[in-house]
Amino acid sequence: MSNVSSPVISLQEFHALKKRCGRQVGEKYTCFVAVKNDDVTRTVVNSVVGTVDLCVRHPLHGETYPAEPGNTPFYSRIYQPDQPKFGYLTNVCVAKYARRQGIASNMLLLAIDAARLDGAESIYIHVHKDNLPARRLYDHVGFKMVDMDGARQSSDLCLLSFNSMH
């Protein structure tokens, strides 16, 4: 989880999401946004208290698990449509002042339901090994550490999965 605290960060994330959403055929991107629901008048960007991004797709050629962000080999941009779809969650963010109120849990559960509706059999997320609050959150929601059978994982990230066929 990261901090959503300034309009500049929110605008940067908005533009990055637009770029991701227009990038690949065969990938469906959805961004879930939690906003304040009070009587105070503010801009849309200043109303945002949390976000989570979801990508649903078939695995790429040679891919067993989703690659760490930015580590997908160029040659593997060919989808395997005969393999089950999966969901991949990124950018789970809640503003510091809004944490510990169930916002992240609710956004994750909504994203999991959306991934199921789009045909994903499993949902994955990478988390920094030292981010204990995020790891506790993901464990509470039902994510489990992936045993990658000796496959190389980065020293600071671990892959978690949620099997949506429970």
UniProtKB/TrEMBL annotation:
PROSITE patterns (alphabetical)? GNAT (PS51186)
Q: Name one Pfam family in it.
A: Acetyltransf_1
**Per the database record, which ranges form the N-acetyltransferase domain?**
1-166
Q: Which InterPro entries match?
A: Acyl_CoA_acyltransferase (IPR016181), GNAT_dom (IPR000182)
Tell me which positions the record assigns to the signal sequence. none
User: GO MF terms on file?
Assistant: acyltransferase activity, transferring groups other than amino-acyl groups
Residue intervals passing through the bilayer: none
Specify the protein name. N-acetyltransferase domain-containing protein
Q: What species is given as this protein's source?
A: Aegilops tauschii subsp. strangulata (Goatgrass)
What broad taxonomic lineage does this protein's source fall under?
A: Eukaryota, Viridiplantae, Streptophyta, Embryophyta, Tracheophyta
